Amino acid sequence: MNIIQALFDAVSTGAVYALAALGIGLVFGVMRLANFANGELITAAGYALIILWPVSWPLAIVASIAVAVALALAMDAAVFRWIRSQPPATLLIASFGVSILLQRVYDGVFGTNVLSAAVAPGLATSIRIGELRINLITIVSIVLAGVLLVAVRVFLTRTRMGLQVQAASEDFRAARVLGIRAGSVIALTFAISGILAAAIAFVLTAQSGSVGPTFGVQVTLFALIGSTIGGLGRLGGSVAGGFLVGFAVSLFTTFLPAWINDFRIAFVYLLVAIVLVIAPNGIFASRTSKERT
Length: 293
What we know:
The chain starts with a helix and ends with a helix. The relative contact order is 0.19. The protein has a single domain (3-292), classed as ABC transporter involved in vitamin B12 uptake, BtuC (Orthogonal Bundle). It has a two-stranded antiparallel ribbon. The model is unreliable at 287-293 (pLDDT under 50). Helix content is 72%, strand content 4%. A hairpin with a 2-residue loop joins strand 2 (126-129) and strand 3 (132-135). It is mostly helical. GO terms for molecular function: transmembrane transporter activity. The chain crosses the membrane at residues 6-29, 61-82, 89-106, 134-156, 177-203, 215-232, 239-260, 266-285. One of its GO terms (cellular component) is plasma membrane. InterPro entries: ABC_transp_permease, BCAA_transport_permease.
């Protein structure tokens, strides 16, 4: 395969994982919650797209965002709000429980089989530039990820609520003492994570055309890994880590020989283990966080 083709595809995959890592990193920064149930937000948005796209694509896009945001806020209101003061390990276990519960709900409502529909079929076409073949969905995923990453960055650095979110992520207790409304900040971070989940669902459903109960699990798992190696609690590190993991997954899938390609995920985990041995706090962790540990 053309090396430029492979790199372009890897950038596209990395961009999707970076978005997922950003959503996880935002919530972790404020609540110290590594939300594994973020995958179920992606799944819910995916179901909305698959079901409603044949009816009306604008309705499907709006509904997917609304469903993901509403579910994210419901998670916080029903579960996480009551255990905010608990250690991060307790919050993580709770998020696993929410994830499994929602998967069973999806099983009961939609069945265990995948639902299929053509989402944004026009994006399945490709263009050729010499030997390079580029699918439109690849371009869209890169552009969409870039726009959302910049938008979140601008929001966090240029708006009052964004600065409050940043302050809360640095020191939540001090931010509350200074008058920042904790409930509003947490609700906002969950809402943003829902919007990012809807964007990821759009890219993935446009690529695969199908959604099942565990649709969002894999991308969330790798995004969590990426956030960890990048440095949980640092948004830039989470994004970079998520991108690197997605980039590695794509390259392993492309270049590993057929006889060993089924073990590509194991190679990703091995790479992560090596990184964490070298940098236990993440490769982009701040000196302050290292000193605390």
